[in-house]
């Protein structure tokens, strides 16, 4: 499959935090899980990949187009589903589609209707009245009507009940079968057990793990990730505890 995203030496320096050079490639039709505790750098990376933060070193290539050189063209090829909703909250889903859809080359109002029906979005209700989970579902509808090659998701299942969470993950599988690439940041690592193809783990601004999910199903590796996510232990300490397994994990 063709690459939908290439992260090439992406780094960002703040006063008290640094995202160290990050390199990885994501392919069309696959889902990559991005994990890491709060402060690991996930939000910083997602802001860069989505084009919200353009002051960074390195480059991001989406659909063969450089974010640094042609940000407007990249915006046509990527969608963001996030808690930081950027739609008109005082307007309905239909009004948002009618106003914002015209800014996207591949926008389909028909597709928008199809996905709103599938996810049971109330078309005449204002966005600010939506629950957290409903806002996420609405954004996914918009992303699918946008018909992009790549979707970034920031904690998309956090507001869902367990039943719909399973349904939502099945929906993501359908989306991937259409050839869309997905990068999903989540604290709920169980969501990735059956759906993720690749796992990225950020720790203190450094990409520590970049591997297939199957390769990380080894018991020792799973314990390291679980200890990191649940006990908030530094990944370096966990790797030391596993001694000679370190080189196999990184």
UniProtKB/TrEMBL annotation:
Q: Which Pfam families match?
A: ABC_tran
Domain ABC transporter residues, every copy: 3-229
Entry's Gene Ontology molecular function annotations: ATP binding; ATP hydrolysis activity
| Keywords attached to this entry | ATP-binding, Nucleotide-binding, Transport
What is the protein named?
Answer: ABC-2 type transport system ATP-binding protein
Cross-referenced Gene3D superfamilies: P-loop containing nucleotide triphosphate hydrolases
Organism of derivation: Kineothrix alysoides
ATP-binding as a keyword?
yes
The family database entries (InterPro entries) matched by this protein are listed as: AAA+_ATPase (IPR003593), ABC_transporter-like_ATP-bd (IPR003439), ABC_Transporter_VariousFunc (IPR051782), P-loop_NTPase (IPR027417)
């Amino acid at each position: 499959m063709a690459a939908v995203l290439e992260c090439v030496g992406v780094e960002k320096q703040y006063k008290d935090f640094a995202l160290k050079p990050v390199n990885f490639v994501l392919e069309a039709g696959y889902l990559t899980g991005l994990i890491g505790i709060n402060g690991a750098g996930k939000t910083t990376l997602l802001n860069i990949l989505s084009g919200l933060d353009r002051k960074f070193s390195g480059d991001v290539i989406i659909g063969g187009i450089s974010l640094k050189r042609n940000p407007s063209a990249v915006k046509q090829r990527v969608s963001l589903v996030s808690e930081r909703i950027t739609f008109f909250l005082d307007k309905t889903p239909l009004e948002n589609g009618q106003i914002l859809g015209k800014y996207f080359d591949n926008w389909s109002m028909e597709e928008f209707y199809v996905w709103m029906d599938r996810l049971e979005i109330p078309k005449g209700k204002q966005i600010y009245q939506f629950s957290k989970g409903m806002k996420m579902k609405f954004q996914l509808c918009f992303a699918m009507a946008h018909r992009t090659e790549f979707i970034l998701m920031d904690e998309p299942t956090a507001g869902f009940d367990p039943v719909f969470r399973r349904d939502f993950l099945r929906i993501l599988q359908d989306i991937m079968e259409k050839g869309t690439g997905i990068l999903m940041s989540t604290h709920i690592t169980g969501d990735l057990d059956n759906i993720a193809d690749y796992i990225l783990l950020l720790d203190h601004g450094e990409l520590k793990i970049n591997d297939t999910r199957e390769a990380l199903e080894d018991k020792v590796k799973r314990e390291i990730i679980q200890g990191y996510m649940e006990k908030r232990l530094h990944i370096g300490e966990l790797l030391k505890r596993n001694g000679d397994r370190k080189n196999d994990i990184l």
